[in-house]
Amino acid sequence: MKIIVCIKQVPDTETQIKIAPGGAAIVTDDIKWVMNPYDEFGVEEALRIKEKLGGDVTVVGLGPKRVTESIRTALAMGADKGVLINDPALDGSDSLAVSKALAAVIKGLEFDIIFTGQRGIDEDQGLVGACLADLLGIPQVSLAVKVEVAADGKSVKINRPVEGQTLVVEAGLPVLITAQKGLNEPRYASLPGIMKAKKKPLEEKTLKDLGLDPAEFGVAGRRLKIMQITPPPARAAGRIVQGETPQEKAVELARLLHEEAKLI
Amino acid sequence: MAQGVWAVAEQRDGVFRKISYEIVSEGRRLADKLGQKLTAVVLGASVKDKAAELGQYGADRVLVADDPRLGQYTTDAYVEVLGQLVKADQPAVLIMGASVQGKDLSARLSGRLGVGMAQDCTSFSVEEGGLVAIRPIYAGKAYAKVTFENSYPQMATARPNVMSISAPDTGRSCEVVSASFTLDDAAIKTKIVDSIKDASGKIDLTEADKIVSGGRGMKGPENFKVLEELAAVIGASVGASRSAVDAGWRPHSDQVGQTGKVVSPTLYVACGISGAIQHLAGMSTSKVIVAINKDAEAPIFQKADYGVVGDLFEVVPALTEAVKKYI
Ligand SMILES: Cc1cc2nc3c(=O)[nH]c(=O)nc-3n(C[C@H](O)[C@H](O)[C@H](O)COP(=O)(O)OP(=O)(O)OC[C@H]3O[C@@H](n4cnc5c(N)ncnc54)[C@H](O)[C@@H]3O)c2cc1C
Ligand SMILES: Nc1ncnc2c1ncn2[C@@H]1O[C@H](COP(=O)(O)O)[C@@H](O)[C@H]1O
Hints:
A: Rossmann fold; 7-stranded parallel beta sheet; B: alpha/beta; Rossmann fold; 5-stranded parallel beta sheet; 18 strands; about 30% helix; binds adenosine monophosphate
């Protein structure tokens, strides 16, 4: 199996979001960057398939130099090689542009299965997997919680929960699968893994290397424009429900939910 | 020149899902602001008879793509057909629900058409004749106001439970039109081989009007019974913090938070949940938040409209009894 995993670097979930002067971007100075948690599930699943059926795993990331760290993390987990698309012209690109650049790299590789995360926990768009699959002309199955590759390596069965039920979808290869929580428990990189990762191939590509026109990328190439970023609307200060005993508090809460909030 | 607003409805087994009424109602409001016509779009098998109902929520016209292969949603078939319809008609605005299906379909359609796309929006407006959307980012730690640049249709999905449903106007008539399209079997590369209904039959957290969630303070899986009882009385779905999920007490699909489900119910009751930033991120757009926690210093109280400091094993059963009076 030839497997590709796309990984995005995002601010750690602990990050408090601060808005940059100008109001259309966030302050990135003190951010700790990590691999998008959903992409960890993709890396883990790719490794499990490789361990079962053989083959190799390539991780592809797009972003500035710091993304190398996340690619090395995936290599330390057990992926075989990495590609970083790094070009200043990519700064501020929207999902569509990112998908185009990823597609350009992936078209030059062999693949049976591509994993992406179901969404980036930064802008919560969840577009790149589907756009990439469309650009490559392959089917996508989103929100996988179980992936079973047939023993002959020709097809795959995927469980994907939709509201109230779980669908079992069968697809031929190649296919793009988006990963979500529940798919697996990602492994930690071992110390020998980390040592080995340092020697694994990690290639860097610019837009020019990929034959792409920088004018279509970056802020200028965005189809979805960010006008303004604001803090979430402030919540009015809440109150502590009074009462001597748990029963009294419960009765008072029920009354407030009924009379004031009008919810029950 | 792109013209008109499209609201893509969602049906399952021939029945419109609630989000469809939200989308058509919101589509009407946008169409009025733009001074344009609203088309509701329905894809399915033998759905034509039901389609006219969407007129009552404001559609001027319902465009129906009827085909046995559209009975059950597959990305391939739906994108193929909807893509053709959009190219033929060139709407200026296209909205659908940010349900599992809507997110999947809209994402791929934006790739197919090469247009910008705003996922999971909480409000829409019109500025200078263009669609403007507000969308929570970083799971609600910030809000982005977005618009489209030379990109038609202007495409967006709306978070379930946020857009209000207009009162149906039974006197309103609308035209039902059969769409023409071609669908080649070879275009459908995935097949649904089985569907397993959730045993619980509960409403998915992303669509639930009320949620009662439990965290590490629940102490064990068996204790979620007290939350189930409260949930049953007030008509809520049960959710969980990551700690409760990682402990194996609850399924992954129950996790609320930045790496779980992002929810916006009218009522969110957090029991034995401390209020970590990743949890708050996933539920802070709830209309009313209640926290029940024995630690008065727990950060969840900062976000709660109503806080009860106490032992959840005493407070929750008492609350279940107390609310019965009002139901
Ligand atoms: C990458 C990453 C992603 C994450 N994503 C998520 C996510 O999506 N969702 C999420 O929820 N978390 C997430 N977390 C975890 C998060 O940081 C917290 O660890 C988690 O939310 C804590 O869960 P909790 O509130 O249930 O547990 P705790 O923080 O242990 O809180 C338990 C609370 O229960 C109270 N309590 C105990 N007994 C009782 C009692 N008898 N009556 C009343 N109160 C009682 C305690 O006072 C305490 O406040 C993530 C963490 C990381 C690192
Ligand atoms: N810059 C990027 N580099 C590599 N993969 C990406 C990038 N952006 C998005 N992806 C992939 O697409 C998924 C969804 O991201 P998004 O559409 O940005 O929410 C991520 O989990 C990644 O797998």
